[in-house]
Amino acid sequence: VCQFYQKALLEHPQAQQAREFLRNRGLNQASLTEFEIGYAPPEWQNLPDVFSPDKLEQLGLLIEKEDGKQYHRFRNRIMFPIRDRRGRVIGFGGRVLDQSTPKYLNSPETEIFQKRQEIYGLHQVLQAHDRLHRLLVVEGYMDVISLSRHGVSYAVATLGTASSREQYELLFRYCKHLVLCFDGDQAGQAAAWRAIKILLQIMRSEREIRIMQLPQGHDPDSLIQEQGKDQFSTQIDKAVVLSDFFFDYLAKQHDLNTIEGRSALVRVARPLIAEIPDETYSQLMHARLSEVAQISLSVKRPQRIRSSQYQPVQGLDSKLSLVKTAINILIQNPEMIRVVNNQPRDWKMIDDADIDVLLLVYETIDHNSDATFLELMEQLEHHHLFERLKSLINKLLLTESEIEAELSDVITGLNKETRQQRVNQLVSKASQKALNTQEKEELSQLLTDK
């Protein structure tokens, strides 16, 4: 059928209007051949008898009326064959040549064609590139063909006005960087917002999504014909990242000078951010929301032991925090430093008033590993933290094995607190300026090691 439509474009006596339309849109023979553009004649029965009516009906090319008569779906339209990523023709898109509606008509859903799972032009892009650095996602067949003719050979189109999660997941299989192109008018903004709500549900830290908005009155086809490839590519480079578009769009919908406006923005944004599966990206989006709304928001965090939740074993004061418990065990049992030395000890950022006392005790024991409790106290007697240390000491009523197990649990809790403080620090920094590659990797690792 695809070959029949191609031949009809060249030979059918009523195809002159279609050829002129394509010529006026700047398409040359190379484009017609690459994308196998054809023409469906105007007759109600325009496909030859060589095709099985049953097969044509299964493929949605033949429609049966209520009176039992059959007619062909596509008539007097320019035909764009839709190929799957393996190159098989699975459906068609047809464009009218007059003012009738619909302007574009796609094949219906069939056994071999589900439009939510297919992308127009993807096969041609994969044929042209061994490796893709980015994909430009546009809305129309003509946009893809015109961009390709001008040298932008990485453009694809969704099938219809509404893109789907399945289509984006398909694209991410081949490229981690997508640039979505939308008209700059209100309808284009709305389409971009619908796409973003879908994309948030599949966002990952390794994926990059940008939004390119066109000047008023332009589509990709008209813009590249006016500007040329180089200037058009520059416009692609200037596309904004998804997070910026997300918050800019919401800021235009709400008055951020009022409490009510900021509150309304949070009500809209928070459920959408909650759907983000990637924890690093979710944390950063929450931090940005806090900044935009000028409010401190709780963020979903990895589960960890908190000082307030810690329950010491019998023999320790149940009111002691992790830090106080570690101080008591170490100062009274200096030999237990071996437990600490088997674990990381970057505790300076822990938010606890007595963290300096714990670090002092640890450093003193580390330099005097054979010292007893009394010897340690004598060494610290003149230190400015000594009085605070004395006030924290509680008598331990634990066996040696209980003390070691207890200290091991406490150190684990302290290290979790340390990781969380570093997460908070990085998230806070990200809300002010972009993290560098090393910091992004660190944040991702911290969230993974929860």
Describe this entry's structure for a reader:
- With about 450 residues, the chain is α/β, with parallel strands linked by helices.
- It contains 20 helices and eleven strands.
- It has helices at about 1-10, 15-25, 30-35, 55-60, 120-130, 140-150, 165-175, 185-200, 220-225, 230-235, 240-255, 260-275, 280-295, 320-330, 335-340, 355-365, 375-380, 385-390, 400-430, 435-450, and strands spanning about 40, 60-65, 70, 75-85, 90-95, 105, 135-140, 155, 175-180, 210-215, 240.
- The strands form three sheets. Strands 8-7-9-10-11 form a five-stranded mixed sheet, sandwiched between helices. Strands 1-4-5-6 form a four-stranded antiparallel sheet. Strands 2-3 form a two-stranded antiparallel sheet.
- The radius of gyration is 33 Å and the shape is elongated.
- Mean pLDDT is about 85; it is low at about 300-320.
Question: Secondary-structure map with pairings?
Answer:
Blueprint lengths: L1 H10 L4 H9 L4 H6 L3 E3 L12 H6 L3 E3 L5 E3 L4 E7 L5 E8 L7 E3 L15 H7 L6 E4 L2 H9 L5 E3 L7 H10 L2 E6 L3 H14 L8 E6 L6 H8 L1 H9 L2 E2 H12 L5 H16 L4 H15 L28 H11 L4 H5 L13 H13 L5 H8 L5 H7 L7 H33 L4 H12 L2
Parallel strand pairs: 7-8, 7-9, 9-10
Antiparallel strand pairs: 1-4, 2-3, 4-5, 5-6, 10-11
Helix pairs in contact: 6-9, 9-10, 12-13, 13-19, 14-16, 14-19, 19-20
Shape: elongated
Low-confidence stretches: 300-319
Gyration radius over CA: 33 Å
Give the averaged pLDDT, no decimals.
Answer: 86
Largest sheet: 5 strands, mixed
Q: How many helices in DSSP terms?
A: 20
Fraction of residues in H or I helices: 40-55%
Q: What portion of the residues fall into strands of 2 or more residues?
A: 5-15%
